[in-house]
Structures are given as structure tokens and as C-alpha cells.
Task: structure prediction
Amino acid sequence: MDLGLTGKRALVLASSRGLGQGIAEALAAEGANVLLCGRSSEKLAANCEAINARGAGKADYVTADLAAPDFAAMLHQAALDKLGGIDILVNNTGGPPPGGAIGMDVSVLDAQFQMMVHQVIDLTNRVLPSMREAGWGRILTVASSGVVQPIPNLALSNTLRSALVGWSKSLANEVAADGVSVNMLLPGRIHTERTDELDDANSKKTGKSVAEVRDAALAAIPAKRYGDVKEFAAVAAFLVSGPASYITGSVVRCDGGAVRSV
Result:
């Protein structure tokens, strides 16, 4: 299937590693020109070098920190300078510290809200006008399966990412007639460095070995394995494609069947 992404300009947040890196690679493989961003210029440069060596779409990067007050304004301008515009925005953020809901530290909540919710909405507001004027645009926000089935010991993530679900659906209804789709993509247990970090955190919290924690996680997944980043990125590439133009306001799971609800 031709996804119709050749020459499209995509900005992918938090793409120095993990899911963001995988999505940037998938879009470039389909011919899109991608702008990666993150805090590690070394990792970003290496990612861009690898993407550019493969041909198809081109990659560039900008070093940016979600915690910076001017993140959205700076990144938007950088995208205009380097890409000439934005056709596709992939909102992706790192996860907050693990922990429960009882006694949640509101100062940490405020700081994480700024990075995971405020910056996403601010940046999206900045890219939308040109998409609506062009009559074509894609907004894809990566969240977590915890917004459907809350994940134990990830109360902050469950809370903040759920706020984006209501925002995304509301926005989708407002811009659908302008040719702009707005969707959310929820990873389950996709094997990344972040997954390893969470398994380690759960090991320390429960006193179980990391192997025991992973075995328990695998037992709860009908597919009986962690997902691969490329599998997840392929779903993302489709959702921002031309053929997916009638999919909007949706929350799509890529979780090996882990979420039990319909």
C-alpha cells in the first residue's frame, strides 16, 4: 500500500530513542522528511545519519527539552526553518516517574503536566493553522494503554495521559472538516529502554527479580510477548497516512491484546 507520505513534512517529538525514534524511521522509510527532537544531540545525530543513509525521506534534528518554558515556540520555529512547514505532528513524550495515587506529590504533578500536557497542546495549537489552511494535516498523540486500563504503580502517567484523551477527541471534532485528522495511539508492552526501566522499578518495589516481573507481564498479554518498536511504528505510519484520512477522533491500541475491555 502506498501511504502517500512522500515529501510530507513530519515533526516527531522525543525521537532520540524508543517509540519516537521508531516512528521517525518508519515515516522516513515511506518518503517523509522528518525532524527529530530530544535532549541528546549525540543520539539524534546518529539517528539522522542512519535514516539518511537508507535513502527515501530525509532526516534532520533539533535539540529541545520539554521542560523548557519556550519549548513549543522554539520547536515550531525550528520546524519551519528546517522543514518549511509541518504536515504531520507526532506528539510523544517521555513517561513520568512511577508511583501510586495515594499521596501523589502535587509539585511533581505540576511539573509533569507542563511537559506532558501543556507543551503538547501548545505545540499543536501552533501547527494547526497552516494544516487547516492547506486542507491536510495529521496530529497523532502517543499515550499509553493506561488511559483505558490504568497501570499499577503508574498513577501519574494514567492521570496525565488521560487528560490528553479528552483534548484529542474534542480537537478532532473541531478540525475534521478541514482535512486534519487527530488520533491517539496507545502502546502496551512495546520493548524499549523505558520498558526495561519500568520492569526494574517494579522489581525494586515488589522485591521480585526482573525476570519474575517480566514473566508476570508476559502472562497477562494474550500474545505472550512484548511488542516490537517496528510493529508499533507501522501503525503510527498508517494513522498519519493518506489512506487513513477517514480515521479521526480515534484511540487505537497496539498492545498484543493486553487491555481486557472491548
